[in-house]
Amino acid sequence: MTKKPLRVLVLVHETLVPPESTDGYSPQEIDEWRTEYDVTSSLKAIGHEVKALGMGDNLAELRSTIMEWKPDIAFNLLEEFQGIVTYDQYVVAFLELMRLPYTGCNPRGMMISRDKVLSKQILAYHRIPTARYALLPRKRRYVEPRKLKFPLFVKSATEDASLGISQASIVYDSQKLRERVVFIHEQTNSDALVEEYIEGRELYIGVMGNGRLTTLPVWELNFGTLPDVMSIATRKVKWDRKYQMRHGIDTGPAQDLPPGLSPRLATLVRRIYRALSLSGYARIDLRLKPDGGVYVLEANANPNLAQIEDFATSALACGMGYDTVLQRIMQYGQNYDAAWRGT
Question: In this predicted model, what pLDDT tens digit does every residue of 274-285 receive, in sequence order?
Fold first, then answer.
């Protein structure tokens, strides 16, 4: 465990540099930079020297800050770079070129886990169940995937945080399928991933570590008063606080799981984590079908670290406080065996 005070450079989006205090801000304003505030304020309270760097569209300021301030580690909270969600992996690659330890996932794991089709191909090779799918690329002639069975679920092949996902993402006929694919192409500027819809309970499991892995308790997304046909994690379900309160939507420990399922899920998510070359920490999203079958939805490298979000609350459920979570994440970053360490 990291005990001595460190000089920690926290990397955030340029619009999400947190203030010193939340005083005077509305809950909606705080939600925008809640993770950044929780991490920086907690690291300071622990005793670390912290500098938050707002990242825009170039790496010059990052390089000069590393050279001049000489941080011990970068705490990576970026979710995009230059407005492109898959480009944050290049920032992490740059940190490796600068030989600076960093928190969270390595560039290879970020690239693989963000590419949902490649992830599914790798998981299929390891005989890990995922929904049957088809990729419908942008700027190509539309061809309906005839081998898939309705209902189908349509989402971006690369975007995360439920971008582009709503109740209309579940389609029941060919016309709605085509409309939704066009919507994804136009609204997210990415390829469309079409999957057979998996009915069941939505489970999340946090994983921490590099070689030796720690799994957190099984967490479940409770859809509250939403009807069963609407049980998907839309953008509103995940991020709209008023919508969550109105429908009683929340997350918490998964209750009444079949006997022996929890340790089986822990083994499964460790296999997924290793198969996708993840490191640091991640959250694995699963579906538990009524017949007991388990399917992987996706793996999320560097999931949300806000104190009220699933990763931190599930850690707390097994006795790991927020400060301890941050310290362990930094320790994994310091211990990660990047290629430059062998030169």
Answer: 999 999 999 999
Q: Residue 30, exposed/middle/buried by CB under 10 A (0-12, 13-18, 19+)?
A: middle
Euclidean distance between CA atoms 57 and 129, whole angstroms = 38
Who's near 151: CB < 8 A, 6+ residues apart? 170, 171, 172, 196, 197
Check if the beta carbon of residue 115 is closer than 8 Å to that of residue 190.
no
Q: Give CA–CA dist 138/129, Å, rounded.
A: 27
Contact 106, 336 (CB under 8 A): yes
Residue 114: closest CA among 150, 168, 78: 78
Residue with tokens 């995922």: 130
- 7, 170, 250 from 199: Cα distances, Å: 47, 11, 19
Dump the DSSP string for 201-235.
EEEEEEEEESSSEEEPPPEEEE-TTS-GGG-S--H
| pLDDT, tens only, 137-182 | 998 888 899 899 999 999 888 876 566 778 888 899 999 999 999 9
DSSP state of 341: G
Highest averaged pLDDT of the listed ranges 37-46, 217-226, 238-247: 37-46
Which one is the CATH code of 7-104: 3.30.70.240, 3.40.50.20, 1.10.10.10, 3.40.1080.10? 3.40.50.20
Note the pTM of the prediction, 2 decimals: 0.92
Alpha-carbon span 207 to 123, nearest angstrom: 17
Q: Which residues lie closer than 8 Å to 292 by C-beta, 6 or more apart?
A: 258, 261
